[in-house]
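Hey, can you fold this one?
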Amino acid sequence: MQGVTVKSRAAAFACAAGALVFILSLILGHGQGGDAVDIGRSLIIAILCGTMTWASTQRSTAATAAAIDAATDRLLAAAHGDLQSHVPAEIGLELPELAVALESLFSQVRTNLDHVQTLALFDQVTGLANRTSFCRQVERLLAERSDDKPAALFFIDLDGFKTVNDTLGHAAGDQLLARVAGRLREVVMAQISTDAGDAVIGRLAGDEFTMFFPRLPGRETASRIARAIQFALGERFDLGSQHVDLGASIGIACYPDHGDTLSALLRSADIAMYHAKHEGRGRAEMFTAALALEAADRAELERDLLLGLERDEFLLEFQPQIEIGSGHAVTAEALVRWAHPERALVMPGAFVPMAEESGSIVALGDWVMGRVCETAARWFKSGVRQRIAINISTRELSQADFFLRLRHAMTTHQTPPAMLELEITESLAMDMDQRMLDQLRALQADGVRIAIDDFGTGYSNLARLKELPVDRVKIDRSLVRDIATSAEARTICSAVVGLIQGLGMEVVIEGIESEAQMEMLRVIGCTLFQGYHLARPMGEADYLGRYAAIRPAVPIERRRL
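Sure. Predicted structure:
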């Protein structure tokens, strides 16, 4: 029944109780005599009993009913958002346990709502504003601007954070992020004491942080703040027994020159940060119009990349690895090129890094893998006994089904395993897990050759190297660049070559650019060379025209370990 309160129900109950007692008293009194006097006395007694019963019931239930009505009203108010008002006093007097329960309930709900708000607005690892909160604060600050002083947005990307996560674990990574947030706060506190003022700091995602100064004296102040950030993040971090060296690539965008909205500023700062990272990391770059054109060109190239795969715009060129004693080519390294319909022939340095960042390297790698398997099978059938080497990226090898896809391509094209050679980078070789090692050993047992590429550019553990399923090591050009003129370079290269050969592996020297380099390396004991001094990459027809008649010994039967 709508509009009926507990108090009105209590009054009705009291009336009913009084009426019941009146009737009972009347019946009992009537049973004692039948004259008018007796009946009158019984009636008086019945009226008195009913009235007293009603009054007693009314008094005992009215206060409780009022307290329950008050509790109901308080709960309705709470349901409409009022969690701050106190529980009415009459509830505490009549129903103390209910009053305590209500206070406890409202307190818990307030705590939970505060926690939800914290989760919604603040990053749990660093305590900084999350993306939503950072954007709201900056948009409000931009809307409230009333002067023409410049503002600056800093986009900060940590250098080397992924390595920390991979080597020390995510717990150490979270601890490091919290330390980074602390140092960014210290930078802001230091700027408050100058003329830069306060700032909003946020963590957008992963290892990306943002910082917004709403009012700066000039754009040169932004460069000074960027240097302060680099200095703060460049100092060593101590994580218990571990010492971590980080850096940061920073992009800077100034309001209003580089954008008059938050989204425009973020886009500009992100472009500048990407350029800083591309130029060698540990740098701070101010956004420019030239960077915007470069970013637009990169975005267009990224869109065209997937279309290029669909339209079969890619091709392979081959560069020989020459055994200098006989002059024979023993291996052809397959190098991908992009015959873009609106550009000149695009070299891999222009699109492979972009493909690795976007993830399209997997599709590109599958295309290369399929084309190499098809080419190797065709060469073998025509009597060309040269392995074809294919570069495998970290992103490709990290795919759980990479080896399955490789074997599928070999089976589809009926490619003899001995016609293939897989090249993996030095850093990847040092970090391979047991699953990858087992798969490589299985391929090696079938006859596929395994080579380490760019040796000397990373960190190698010789004890680890001897345990790897590796047949050949390709020494990077950086180790041999000065070998003809530097005694130190000759000493280092001689030691490296001796160690690798001592482990029973072949040595291939990359990046040969002069006869003097090659002669010096021959003295050291090297016989396999690759580089522009010997031959530039060329199309398949040209390559076969120069090297197809040469048939070095390439074992076709399966190797047994």
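The two ends are 89 Å apart (CA to CA). Let me know if you want another pass with a different chain boundary.
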